[in-house]
Amino acid sequence: MKFIGAGSRPGRPQIDHDSVFTIPNLLTVVRFMGVPLFIWLVLGRQQYAAGVIVLAIMASTDWIDGYIARRFDQASKLGRVLDPIADRLAMIAVAITLVIAGVVHWLYLAALVIPDAVLLVLSLSLFHGHPDLPVSVVGKVRTGLLLLGMPLLVLSRLDTPVSGPAYVAAWVVLGLGLVGHWVAAYNYFWAMLRKGGLQPTDDGGAS
């Protein structure tokens, strides 16, 4: 079974419905709720093992809600906007938490925030809100790598035989994720300019 776009039905176009109370949207809300829980576990209790579990659940819901939306025709207009916002807020909030906890350097947080800050300003300037652009394969892979790398990094803080390999694996995955993050932001930047009428229209991906 393919990982990216899993659940989609060939020959059947995906339609974004007006529904609000759907299982994918519920899972996105669960992902939102996982953020304060993770912050409390890491900063308040120094419970890194429990933090790894919370991050793993949050990462899995990102894939599961997309699968359910495609497989059971539960894609919604709200989910199309809410899902990427949940991903961004989760990644930034977790990164801030890890910086405060001394797990990562602040430069990692800057590498995450700067592209999104530029795109946010451009989006508000051109569209006064969400630009409603399709998510590209680069964007999906980027999100998956970053969501995978963060629990691996927290896992490396535990006193276990896999701490060393987990640390190396975490930074390999996060490094690739950051590269994808900037590539996706670059694609999204030009896609927004084209949609806003500031650049000639041609084929291109978005984040």
Summarize the topology.
Elements: H1 23-44, H2 48-71, H3 77-100, H4 106-127, H5 137-155, H6 163-195
Helix pairs in contact: 1-2, 1-3, 2-5, 3-4, 3-5, 4-6, 5-6
Residues in helix, %: 55-70%
Give the percentage of residues in beta strands.
under 5%
> Under the CATH scheme, which class?
Mainly Alpha
Distance between the termini: 24 Å
CATH topology: Four Helix Bundle (Hemerythrin (Met), subunit A)
CA radius of gyration is: 18 Å
Q: What's the rounded overall pLDDT mean?
A: 87
In this structure, how is the largest beta sheet organized?
Answer: none
Give the CA-based shape: globular
What would CATH call the architecture?
Up-down Bundle
Structural domain count: 1
What kind of assembly state do the chains in view correspond to?
Answer: single chain
H/E element order? HHHHHH
Low-confidence stretches: none
Class per helix and strand makeup: mainly alpha
Counting DSSP E segments of at least 2 residues, the number of strands comes to 0
**How many helix segments?**
6
